[in-house]
Amino acid sequence: MSLLKRFDDDLKEALKAADRGKVSILRMVKAAVKNKQIEKGRELTDDEVLSVLSSMVKQGRESMEQFTAAGRIDLAGKEEREVAILQGYLPAQLTREEIDGIIIEAVRETSAGGPQDMGKVMRLVMPRLKGAADGKYVNQRVRELLEPGSRPNPHES
Questions:
Q1: Where in the chain are all domains bearing CATH 1.10.1510.10?
Q2: 3-state secondary structure of 76
Q3: How would residue 92 be classed by pLDDT, with cut points 50, 70 and 90?
Q4: How many CA atoms does the CB half-sphere of 61 hold within 13 Å?
Q5: Cβ atoms < 10 Å from Cβ of 90
Q6: Domain 96-146: which CATH class?
Q7: pLDDT tens track for 6-43
């Protein structure tokens, strides 16, 4: 079943159950997807819909951090609930070890020698993760793993 069909079905269920929070977030998703479709001038693939969802999750997490820093725990809680609903549509999140394995493999493939090669590694890693890991976290781990002395030299075997 396509993600768009799943959104429609879940929206109908949420309307029947009078779940205002879920109705609101699903309508926001549908609007964001519709805007992206208009921008592209065609229907979106499931991968493109996942990209829209990932962006919404990222924005929600950033909002949670800002609300928490400002002492607005009530608004941070609302964002947290919305992010939880959105994550239900994303692929299962990978563990730290799984992410590290993908990063290390990309480092080997690109023969990255240090932080200056971060762009090469990220170009390989991000398509492989497709919504299965937080981009900010992945960026941080790539940076850490490319630091001199943080990992075994991929050229040594």
A1: 3-87
A2: helix
A3: confident
A4: 13
A5: 17
A6: mainly alpha
A7: 989 999 999 999 999 899 999 999 999 999 999 999 98
Amino acid making up residue 18: A
Residue-level pLDDT at 150:
60
DSSP 22-69: HHHHHHHHHHHHHHHHHHHTSPPPHHHHHHHHHHHHHHHHHHHHHHHH
> Which CATH architecture fits 3-87?
Orthogonal Bundle (1.10)
CA 88/CA 51 separation, integer angstroms: 14
What is the distance between the terminal CA atoms of the chain, rounded to a whole angstrom? Answer: 45
- Three-class DSSP category at 102: helix
State the CB neighbour count (10 A cutoff) for residue 109. Answer: 13
* Whole-model pTM over 0.90: no
Q: Write the single-letter amino acid at 12.
A: K
Describe the chain by its helix, strand, coil percentages, rounded to 5: 75, 0, 25
- Range(s) of the chain covered by CATH 1.10.10.410: 96-146
Question: What is the C-alpha separation between 128 and 152, in angstroms, rounded?
Answer: 22
Rounded mean pLDDT of the chain? Answer: 87
